[in-house]
Write a structure and sequence with these properties.
Layout (H helix, E strand, L loop, with lengths): L6 H22 L4 E4 L5 H6 L3 E3 L1 H10 L3 H10 L8 H10 L2 E5 L45 E5 H5 L5 H9 L13 E5 L5 H13 L3 E4 L11 H22 L5 H23 L10 H13 L4 H20 L10 E6 L7 H10 L2 E6 L12 H9 L7 H14 L4 E7 L3 H4 L2 H12 L3 E6 L9 H23 L1
Parallel strand pairs: 1-2, 1-5, 5-6, 7-8, 7-9, 9-10
Antiparallel strand pairs: 3-4
Helix pairs in contact: 1-11, 1-12, 3-5, 4-5, 5-8, 9-14, 10-12, 13-18, 15-17
Length: about 475
Amino acid sequence: MAKQVSPGVLALRKVVDDVYQEAREAKARGELVGWSSSKFPCEFAEAFGLHVMYPENQAAGIAANRYGEILCQAAEDLGYDNDICGYARISLAYAAGKRAARKFDPETGEYIIDPSTGKPLKDADGKVVIDEATGKPKKDPKTQTPYMVLDDLNEINALPDGVEKERRLAAISQIKQMQIPQPDFVLCCNNICNCMTKWYENIARMHNIPLIMIDIPYNNHVDVDDSNVKYVRAQFDKAIKQLEELTGKKFDEKKFEQACANANRTAKAWLKVCDYLQYKPAPYSGFDLFNHMADVVTARAKVEAAEAFELLAEDLEKAIKEGTTTTPFPEKYRVMFEGIPCWPKLPALFKPLKEHGVNVTAVVYAPAFGFVYNNLDEMARAYYKAPNSVCIEQGVDWREGICRENKVDGVLVHYNRSCKPWSGYMAEMQRRFTEDLGVPCAGFDGDQADPRNFNAAQYETRVQGLVEAMDANKQAKEA
C-alpha cells in the first residue's frame, strides 16, 4: 500500500515545484532569474517580482539524490579546495556548467545501465526470481538506473543543433535541482557564514553578473545593538536601490509590505509546525522538519507557502488528536539532532535510530528560519539571529531551551566537515548540555553534501553508545 501523504505536505510540494517551474519559464521568456543565499531578505526580491533560486537548497537536493560527490569532485578539478563547504563546491561546479548526466551509448542512443542498481525481480506470485547462472536474484529492469557521469552544459550548448545535442541535453538528470537556470544576478547575506561571501563573489565573477550583498557581522552579545541595526538598515536601503537599477522598476512599498506580511505569516506557521515536536510521542520526526526546510526557504514570502504551512499545522493537530505519527517505529528515546543532516546518507542516518527506537524530536536548524518582525528595525534584528552569527551563550540558550521543551533524553551531534563555523564549538556545547541538562551526548563525523566524509560504522557505534548512555541515565533516575 502506498504511503499516505498529508494535504499539507502535498500543498508544500506544489508550492516549491511551482517556484522551480516558474523560474524555468521566466528564463525561457528572457526574464531575470537570480540566485540567493537562504537568509538574504527574500522580501525585497519578492517586492520586485523577481524569480529567485536558492543554491543551498539546490545543493542539498543534489546531495540527497546521490549526485553530490560527482559535483564536489568537479569543483575540486576546477581548483576549489575539498576543505570548503560541500554546498559551495556543488554550487560552484553547477555555476561553471557541470551537470550529472546519464551515461549513454552514442551509437545506439540507449542509456548504459549500472548493474549495481535495481530491485529484485519478482514473479506473479511475488517470489524473487533467481538467476540460475549466478544463483543471485535477478534485477527488475524497470527499477535499474544508468551510470551517472559528469557532463558540461557549456560544451553541449556550443554543439550545432541535432541529434547529439538533443541526446546530451536529455541525458542531464531530470531532478528539478539539476534543471535550475543559470543566474542573471546573485543576492548574498553572510549571516549563515563568511564562506557565503567568497562563494557568491565567485559566481558573480564567473557569470559577470551583479552581486547584491548584505553584511551581517558576527554578534558577540545576546542582544543586537542599535548601531548594528543602523548598519544593516543602511544596507537594506542600498539593496533596494541596486534592485531598482537591476530591474528598471521603482520600489513599491505596498508590494514590500505584502511580501513582509506573507513572510511573517509563513514564519509563524512554520514555527507552529516545529512546536509539534514537543508532544510525546511526537506526531512526526525532526527529519520531516529537515525535509520541509527547502519549502520555508524557497517560498517564504509567498502567500501560498503560508497557506500550505497552516494546512500542515492542521494535519499535525489532527494527528495529535488521533494519536498517529509519521515515525515508523515506537518512540523509546527522544534526542536532539545537532546540525545539518548528511543528505547523501539519510537512510544510513535513519536506520540505527529506527533499530533503537530513537526519534529526533529537537533540531536547532529548522526554527532558525522562522523570522518574525513588525517593522524594518525588527527585521534587521531578526536577520541577525542565524545559528552561525550569534555568540555561544545565545547558541547554548537556544539549544537547551529546545531540549527542555521537546523533552529529549540525549543529544546527537553532527561534526559537519562542510560547516566548520557550526561544528567548531560543538565540543563545548556538548559539555554544557551534559552539565546543564543532565543528558548524554554523542558526536559523529560527517558532511552535509560530500558522502566521502561519512563513515556508517562509526555513526552506528556512536548511536549505540548514546542509546546505552540514555538507558543507564533512565535507570539511574528511576532508581
